[in-house]
Amino acid sequence: MLKTVVKKGSYHDSVVLMLLTNKISTIKGVKKVSIMMATPANKDIYRQSGLSTEALEEASANDLVIVADVEEDSLLDTIEAEMEDFFKKQSTVNAKNKGTESVKSWGKALAKQPDANLAVISIPGEYAAFEAERALDEGMNVFLYSDNVTIEDEKALKEKAHAKGLAVMGPDCGTGIIQGVPIAFTNNVSKGSIGIIGASGTGIQELTTIIDRLGEGVTNAIGIGGRDLNAAVGGITMADMIDAMEDDDTVKVLIIVSKPPAKEVRDNISDRLSNFSKPVVTLFVGEKPEYHEENFYHAYTLDEAARLAVSLVRGTKAPEASADADESEFFKAEENKTIKAYYSGGTLANEAAMLIKDAMDVKVPPEDIEGYMLQLEGNIVVDLGDDAYTKGKPHPMIDPAKRIECMENAIDDESTGVILLDIMLGYGSHEDMAGALLPSIIRLRDKAKKTGRRVFFIATVCGTRKDYQGYDEAVKKLKDAGVIVCENNKLACRTAIRAIGRDFKEPVKEIRAKKVVEVEKHTPSEKLRHLLSDKPHIINVGLKSFAEVAEKFECEVVQYDWMPPAGGDVELIKTLNFLRHYEEIDEANQSVIAKVVASQPVLKDNVRAKEVIPELNKGKVILHAGPPVAYENMPDPMQGSCVGAALFEEWADDEADARKLLESGEVKFIPCHHVNAVGPMGGITSPNMAVFVVENETDGNHAYCTMNEGIGKVLRFGAYSEEVVERLRWMRDVLGPTLGKVLRTMENGLAINPLIAKAVAMGDEFHQRNIAASLAFLKEVAPYITAFDMNEKDRYDVIKFLADTDQFFLNIMMATGKAVMDGARMIQAGTIVTAMCRNGYEFGIRIAGMGDEWFTGPVNTPQGLYFTGYDGEDACPDMGDSAITETFGVGGMAMIAAPAVTRFIGAGGYKDALCTSNKMTEICISRNPNFTVPTWDFQGICLGIDARLVVEKGITPVINTGIAHKTAGYGQIGAGTVHPPIECFQKAIAAYAKKLGFEG
């Protein structure tokens, strides 16, 4: 039975998950299992393997998914326990490698490594091109380990790199050495005067290890990817690196190695090399050159190329290698035995196929079968590193399972006389591949013996004596078990071919005069010169092991713990890339920020709403929180607030009449935001309610908000009892006029910024905690109130109400946020979020560049702590305009400012508050220097929620909020936090990109 476990937002790189899959697959009762991130490409692999489930299809690219075909349900517990143990061990290993700094964004990576000149990218191929382009835009060369990048993307990236004086190495580039530093799957090779430009992986490893064991060295070996010499790409990276190597005085001899190239590209490269000022050795796998040219040598095999280069450096011929094998036991040709060759990489496999075809005198290319380099008369050569074998599975360099499976099939074929394989040492490879394969080799050899058959196991070990696995140890281990071990791949292939009674001939080449073709030479860019002359400064995007190795070689490395941007949605990523390249957006966003920082909000007055909001004078009109919503779609508490407003305005005599009126359509409903107002929770504002008037003196605009009623059974939470209505009338008739008189008496109203600054320093975050600000407000107004000629009871009641209402300043803060953000959005450009609000039905946001347009999604229900007797089942979906405070940068965004409130809203404690605010900085582009937080090292509050960053990182703003009962009349039942639905932000950036001309 198929069982699925989805771990939301738990991202791990593919290599780690492949190894975990192998571990889980050994559990008894697990018939089949796959553990991968739910990227679109991986979902295809699940489908192809018959492991697709509904839960998998619903998962996002940032979700880890386990799909297992198990005999019993209880095995899921075992699988999860094994997985937890596996990740704990991984964490322990990572903890031992503390040197590499980790970040989670490009911005932070560049801040830590501002002089980075190389991005090493090893992430799923469907996203790799986007990150490579970003690296190029930041002025970095790219080492693109990732495969499954389209050839169209490869060409575009390389053309862009060329135009910028940079290089893209890859994609599917498994090996590189830059200034002696191993990149990706590479051996520990001595530095020296031989330069190499090669396809991508095992070919470079074979060359560099032979050179090292001969006593010479390689300082720079540049992998260009297997398709660079494809006609569609045109050899862009190869050509640029030839120019750079010629300019590099430390390079005395250059080796060029490539998988079979397109003829026109090969000819262009050869023409350029005929002009090269230093000795060159070329190896185009598949070609059998018959002569050399002066200082322009043409090799047939990797071994020949390596020994030629060493000979040219030394001025004396390098010695040839020989195999230690008893050829008397070998088969005769007429016995028709076959070779089964299983390789880790394409270049070595290509070479083996070429040599076997040569030995069999085959001129016509064999049938092209995916993964097979050769399938001819029972002889096969398989590149187990091909995408056909590695999709969703570990690479054969790190996992022996597929090779063992292949060897088992080979033994069952009675024609098999030789099993040929490579053992790859070096960074990234299995810690003991020889040891891992030997039990199977011995078992299979013995199985053949029992049936009276001989099967020769022949291996080549590709490595150096400095590789951590130990070259000599690996060779000895294999030889002791009866494996014929050869020093290089050519020798291993020749020994295998002789073992079945055949051989190939290497031509004896004369040296002819070099035919020089006049071609235009180019001076390499300073960036490429720098790449080859100094240790790279690396941002490692993906596999941590690559960063750890580079650091061992004293490189400056920043580890970017990458996750798929935009939840892995490729179309959204394209949208983000389009917006990222629009420089005007960043300029506009900074202008919005500047307006916010320069704003001067002043509390000017307190009046009846209809006196400042003309729309309230046009019949029966009620303002509500959030984006537009019909009365029938309002949650019960908001409808209850409307009942209370109708009773307050005396439009109805009782609840029944009020509901009848509201349902009749006679009352018009308008969002507060549409008339320069905001309202907490239900946001219900009617014509005669008292509202504060805040003027943003910088821009001359105004905003309005009702006054805070306190907590418990209040209108904003849906209560509408006589007590609630009477309180509202007292606020209209006494509290509002008193405060209005105070504010008008002040020479220029009450400046709000100083109050905010004081209260932040005293522990307010201005959404759930407003105690300091409310007391500071009381301190400002109390002297005026005590001096007024007014009824003593009214005076007492006003001061007592202000003293008792800890949240009183919240509504002033809301009007302030509205006034400031409305002033800022006059820019009418950019991606800064200028409003967030909810109505219990939908959540809506606005961004600067889209003016008044709302972008909505289904509203969430807050999570937090509840008053005694209530729980999450009682909670109403989120509502209110109070999230304008988070848009301004306070509330949940400034959680760190109010450690005292964190437990009340269910956030835990100080560390959780710090973590929350730090996380919010990842989606904000600035800080507000006007309001510094002592508990945050006096840094300014977050400022400027960028909708692009929200979508890219999948981090939505955290909002502190009260929790209303889902049934009207109960009022507030708790407090907590809530997050907007991310689709609001996705819709916003898609609309803005379309406005700017993006067609998608």
TrEMBL record:
Positions of the ATP-citrate synthase/succinyl-CoA ligase C-terminal domain: 343-497
List GO BP terms, alphabetically.
tricarboxylic acid cycle
Where does this protein come from, organism-wise? Muricomes intestini
Q: So which domain of life are we looking at?
A: Bacteria
Example GO molecular function: succinate-CoA ligase (GDP-forming) activity
Q: Which GO terms describe its cellular component?
A: cytosol; succinate-CoA ligase complex (ADP-forming)
Segments forming domain CoA-binding: 191-283
Q: What is this protein called?
A: Succinyl-CoA synthetase alpha subunit
Q: Which SUPFAM superfamilies match?
A: Succinyl-CoA synthetase domains
